Amino acid sequence: MYVCGIGKNLNNMAQKRRDFIKISSLTAAGTIFGASYLKSAVTAVTDKLGTFGPLSMKRTPTYCEVCFWKCAGWVYKNEEGKIQKIVGNDDDENCNGRLCPRGTGGVGMYYDEDRLKTPLIRVTGKDGKQTFREASWDEALDVVAKGLQKVKDEHGAECTALFTHGSGGKYFGDLLKAFGSANIAAPSYAQCRGPREVAFIATFGEGLDSPEPLDIRDTRCLVLIGSHLGENMHNGQVQEMSDAIDKGAAIITVDPRFSTAASKSKFWLPIKPATDIALLLAWIHEIIYNDWYDKKYVEKYTYGFDLLKEHVRNYTPEWAYGITTIKPDIIRETAREMRNAAPSVIIHPGRHVTWYGDDTQRLRAVAILNALLGSWGRRGGYYVPETASVPSFPHPEFPKPTRTWRDAMGGKYNLADLALASGVCDATIPSPDLDCSIKAWIVNGTNLIMTLPDERKTIEAIKNLDFMVVIDTMPMEITGYADVVLPECTYLERYDTLRADKGRKPNIALRMPAAEPKYNTKPAYWMAKEIASRLGLGDYFAWNTIEEMLDWQLKQMGSSLEEMKRIGVKNLPREYGGLYFPEEEDMEFNTNTGKIELYSTAFANEGFDPMPVYTAHETPPPGFYHLNYGRAPMHTFSRTSNNPNLVDLMDENTVWVNPKVAKEWGLKNEQPIYLENQDGIVSDFAIKVRVTERIRFDSVYIVHGFGHANKKLSRAYGKGASDSQLISRVLLDPIMGGTGMRGNFVTFRFSKKESEA
Ligand SMILES: Nc1nc2c(c(=O)[nH]1)N[C@H]1C(S)=C(S)[C@@H](COP(=O)(O)OP(=O)(O)OC[C@H]3O[C@@H](n4cnc5c(=O)[nH]c(N)nc54)[C@H](O)[C@@H]3O)O[C@H]1N2
Ligand SMILES: Nc1nc2c(c(=O)[nH]1)N[C@H]1C(S)=C(S)[C@@H](COP(=O)(O)OP(=O)(O)OC[C@H]3O[C@@H](n4cnc5c(=O)[nH]c(N)nc54)[C@H](O)[C@@H]3O)O[C@H]1N2
Ligand code: SF4
Ligand SMILES: [Mo]
Q1: Would you say residue 591 has pLDDT above 90?
Q2: Ligand 1 pocket by Cβ (under 6 Å)
Q3: Are 210 and 327 in the same domain?
Q4: What separation in angstroms does the CA of 254 have from each of 152, 231, 233, 366, 700?
């Protein structure tokens, strides 16, 4: 397809497109996109689970933890009390009653016989080799409390840190704050959406968070810049995108790869990697110089329009063509498409946006384009979300730490609004510039070895620690380096905090156990409370049982635990009436000027370009290709690659190679090959080649989360290659410290030996 030309209007190519997508090995998920797709994919997974019982089976409410869209659902059990299936809750806006394949396959997390089964204490050196002895909970928790207390006594509580992803973060976060540290970091910020949040805060005065407040269902034009919805299975967005397509919305996909979303698009722009800012500037130029922007809106709400107009004067489509390889007429045509749909147009802000180190500026360009088209606060654009406010169970005030992670950043990244996981990792490696390097890590629900770029650095940091405890459900790579491993039961076996997501309506959802914890596993809230009481911090966890805490919270909100057990999800009325789109009202923006800042005063104050500029990035040397990576619909990061149900759908990743490149190298489909990056790092395992037109000749593509090196993962071990291992070059975003991960190049090696020679 790529050879057909740059940026073709794909409207007349439907048949070819269908043929094209058939070659996808994404099975059902790649071929059918809409509601029927979701149903068929769900059936595919549930069929693997065996027979369904009657719908009179006992059901308990939950919200999903297979990814962080947190769809609410019902867990069904058969007569013997065995968990049979999970289905979506009809009242939940995140899923509208339908889970994605991963959510349905969440049952596999519960049944996975490779799970962590009992607390573990290290017996040999910190080598990642997973040599532990089994311990009782009492002993393991004592060791954790002592390990943390020793660091506090010797270095201060500020030298401890929490890395977390998922619901346990609340409890371990409270524990750490009570202990006296504010170093709470999640890789879902500096390795994911951080640059986007900073760019939108600078422009509109607020970040987007999750779920993003995008009115996709009513949009008339959706522009996806590397957001591969359909492979990125964030449920509500995928459903709304298929609804929008059914209603005739135009999709414009900018992606060097022919993604599933591209196959559903009116326009596919196979951009040269790392050049998106040039395309965005050319679009801004077209919208402004053709007078296609929303004049009333821009006049009323924005700051810096004249400066922006001058700034983009020379960024013509012809200029961008030379950089992006997207033809000028396609740039013009797509700009017109957006303008025709405005204000019901969404330039999608993306989510995993840490690509090339200038990501905050790219997302600023995205935010500016949305502002010019007037889509913020408009139907079919960005809606105004509301969040339910859940009262905190009473506890003493947290102490104020004397130092925080910010003090370890050397005055950099002041615009980062959350802690940087990569920054806290760096601050663990002793340096003369630091008052104290971090000495103890609590790692909850994040496989840092595969999540942070440059694993060599992560391992070096860990080796400098006095103490590390890992809380996980599976023997993932990170557990191999822990002093103590605490096995958490899965989300199907526990209560958790109420889900209070933002949305068109404020809402809450309950997760409660559908089954007793298997093996000798426990919920995170219990572990945190036990550790707190050993550290003399029991007052911060003053509830006796989590049921008591939840019931207290719910009663403050006019509900009860008993009600939530029955309904699972409760949608609350909007506090300020029914307006998701206050277009006729005056909007206010929490920026320095009170306006939407096309010219960012906050960036100018910090010495950064107040308006986005394009800078060229390195291109691959001869014989090397951009290492491009992304999602598969049936897997989440590295967390599902051992899940028996999901492994049935996809058990390894492949490396996508353009036919031209395959010919040059003599590569055949299914041929196992090693990948070597620009720093001489060779993938631990061979990965099978997939020859496909769907990838540009200057790039290869692999799905993230495979290539596990831990033998205790019996299904995932040695399957495919790990992108994380090959991401050794990090392009740091100077504005907020995000770790750009797409500046890595790989070449092919026919054997592991050849590259070692
Ligand atoms: N190379 C590379 N790196 C990336 C990305 C990429 O695409 N490529 N993506 C980035 C993005 S967008 C993000 S958001 C981050 C995600 O990063 P992470 O959230 O760290 O993702 P996972 O690697 O899946 O790690 C999740 C860990 O949680 C464990 N776990 C699962 N369920 C539970 C539970 O109920 N309790 C506990 N305690 N543990 C549980 C899993 O076993 C696993 O070890 O990674 C970022 N890093
Ligand atoms: N199934 C599934 N869905 C998920 C997740 C999961 O693990 N599994 N994780 C969730 C999370 S936390 C996140 S953050 C999101 C991540 O998903 P997204 O935010 O949608 O996407 P990315 O991972 O950033 O980007 C992947 C796409 O970017 C394209 N790309 C690569 N280089 C370039 C470039 O230079 N320019 C452009 N325009 N495109 C480029 C790739 O070809 C690929 O299609 O997915 C979410 N949804
Ligand atoms: S999108 Fe899928 S995996 Fe994510 S929370 Fe929803 S059902 Fe679970
Ligand atoms: Mo993410």
Answers
A1: yes
A2: 65, 165-166, 168, 187-188, 191-192, 352, 444-447, 450-451, 471-474, 476, 488, 490-491, 524, 629, 637-639, 704, 723-724, 727, 741
A3: yes
A4: 50, 15, 18, 13, 17
